[in-house]
Design goal:
By secondary structure, this protein is an alpha/beta fold. It has twelve helices and 15 strands. The longest helix is centred in the first third of the chain and has 22 residues, at 100-121. The chain is globular, with a radius of gyration of 21 Å. NADP(+) binds at residue 127.
């Protein structure tokens, strides 16, 4: 009889995978992660784990690709996980318009391949599917969005995730598998990819301070998002798999902010106030004190179909799972801005503000 908790994480080199691996290792799990072979190492987010006492004792990496069903079959049979967290995907909404067919395969059909590998070889394994708020399409009249909100995805990524959502429900109902969907609203951190808008903002501001960049260029400044901290959200993933019955849950902060507000909050961490002029593609943000142009709008960053408004209702997860978040919006912005400024300019936000006084 298997007593050891053994977790298998796809997408372990990503933001969520790295936080989840840390969380599970601290709980005593044996953790296995799937990584794709690259000519250049992409393990930066988990290098600290690879250099820790966990490596090759409690932490193991396997070369794999979730689009390769034979590979998944073999690894599931060898590892015999008790919990599987499927976080792998082509996860960038904007990029999904450029590579829609690959997104369908890597984000949608790959879920079926993993579920089938678990059905055949997984025994009583519990399964978590990373779902997304992009399922909802951001219709204002549906906000705040919950587990009961109708789906209306507006990107190839959202459509692929919709397939993953329903095939997970189908396997749960057809084969009595313990399979859950976590419908997570936007969750960010200093480990967020540089092509996501929150990290693009904090990284650009750090480069501006360091004299390496003139200004920050963005797309739709009015888009509203429900932004939380990724480290809080991985706790919710784990909690879903500890319940007596499998179900689907929304994880969100229950509040929403515009891209413009994220920009303002990020600059505010440095003691810089932004003055806005113009609207739409002509909108510009200036340093209120010096008059320097710091932000403008580039129409190239608009998407073919915009999701304008995401605002989640996590009441079910809060009541059923006891899930709570520890980091609020301002705390998240502060964490990300400070990390990028330290990395780029070699100082904290507080140190920069002090230097301005001098």
């Amino acid at each position: 009889m298997q007593n050891q908790n053994i977790a298998l994480i796809t997408g372990i080199t990503g933001q969520d995978g790295s936080y989840l691996a840390e969380f599970l290792l601290e709980k005593g799990y044996e953790v296995h992660g799937l990584v794709r072979r690259h000519s250049i190492s992409n393990t930066a987010r988990i290098d600290h784990i690879l250099q820790s006492e966990y490596n090759k004792v409690k932490f193991f990496l396997h070369y794999a690709d979730t689009t390769d069903s034979s590979n998944l079959m073999r690894l599931v049979a060898e590892i015999r996980p008790t919990e599987v967290y499927n976080l792998a995907a082509q996860s960038h909404v904007g990029v999904s318009f450029e590579v829609p067919e690959y997104t369908a395969e890597a984000t949608g059909v790959s879920t079926l391949k993993l579920l089938e590998a678990l059905r055949v070889n997984g025994g009583n394994c519990r399964y978590y599917q990373a779902s997304t708020s992009e399922l909802f399409g951001g219709l204002p009249e549906t906000a705040p969005q919950s587990e009961k909100t109708p789906f209306y995805p507006k990107s190839p990524y959202g459509v692929a995730k919709l397939y993953s959502y329903w095939i997970t429900v189908n396997y749960r109902e057809s084969y009595n598998m313990f399979a859950c969907n976590g419908i997570l609203f936007n969750h960010e951190s200093p480990r967020r990819g540089e092509n996501f808008v929150t990290r693009k903002i904090t990284l650009a501001i750090a480069n501006i301070i360091a004299g390496k960049q003139d200004k920050l260029s963005l797309g739709n400044m009015n888009a509203k998002r429900d932004w939380g901290f990724a480290g809080d959200y991985v706790k919710g993933m784990w909690l879903m798999l500890q319940q007596d019955k499998a179900d689907d849950y929304v994880l969100a902060t229950n509040e929403t902010h515009t891209v413009r507000e994220f920009v303002e909050a990020s600059f505010a961490e440095l003691g810089i106030s932004i003055r806005w002029e113009g609207t739409g593609v002509n909108e510009k943000g200036y340093d209120a004190e010096t008059g320097r142009l710091l932000v403008d709008v580039n129409p190239e960053f608009y998407r073919p179909a915009e999701v304008e408004f995401l605002w989640g209702n996590a009441e079910k997860a809060q009541k059923a799972l006891g899930w709570e978040r520890d980091v609020d919006f301002r705390g998240l912005v502060s964490m990300m801005m400070d990390a990028d400024l330290r990395a780029i300019a070699g100082m904290s936000c507080g140190e920069y503000k002090e230097s301005k006084k001098g």
